[in-house]
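INTERNAL AUDIT FORM
Audit reference: QA-55
Scope: verify that the stored structure record matches its stored sequence.
Auditor: D.O.
Record contents follow.
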Amino acid sequence: MGWRDRGVEVKTPEQVALMRRAGLVVARTLEMVTDLARPGLTTGELDARAEAHIRQLGATPSFLGYQGFTGSLCVSVNDEVVHGVPGSRVLAEGDLVSIDCGAIVDGWHGDAATTIALGDVPDDALELSRVTEDAMWHGIAAARDGGRVSDISHAVETSVRACGDYGIVPDYTGHGIGSQMHLPPDVPNLGKPGRGARLVPGLALAVEPMVTLGSPATDVLDDEWTVVTRDGTWAAHHEHTFTLTPDGGSWVLTALDGGRARLEALGVRYGGD
């Protein structure tokens, strides 16, 4: 079909249902890891528990082995924006920790991320996480059948800009997702509306703003994965996978409630089961 000819994968309802199963594995794993994370635990220990949990739920970790990545989670702490490699780092009181998780069920992917606070975290960092999460939800809420991908981008940017002078990282974006973890189209976190691929039911997208307390400029550490802010300021990262449904609703495949509460609060029709 035409959409696939252009590299944009539109799923059948049966395929979306498999993505929901993968999304629930991700949601439950993030819930477990959030409860488990505490000062004194290493990022590698978190990762090992996440891998075991994903497999116990009958899924496969998306990240493990992806282009040589060695973890089932990305665990990014404080000034680390994304793609933090789990290992010997010991989590500490006052850390702001971003955790990204992916899972595969019968060949279909789910991908989501959350940022959590360990103990007494500075107020500006807590607000940064809140702003980032709200921007993600505003981006998802902006998606409409027949709209364009950059409608999401514009909504994310507008939401962040309304809250203060934050940095929106431009070099890393959301993405299409389905039979692969990363598919076209890219979903930037800033830009003008009305541009990019057309939004249609069955097109699944991962929306994931990455926002900093300072400059949006980033560098990559010597491990060739971990992205850090160039100015050393802290960052937050939130992500969900969602799709539009044939009834005109939206369904967040990686939220335990399908996104119903946040979508309805933003005036968006909930399209999940």
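Auditor finding: record pair retrieved intact. Residues 146 and 199 are 5 Å apart (CA to CA).
Action required: none
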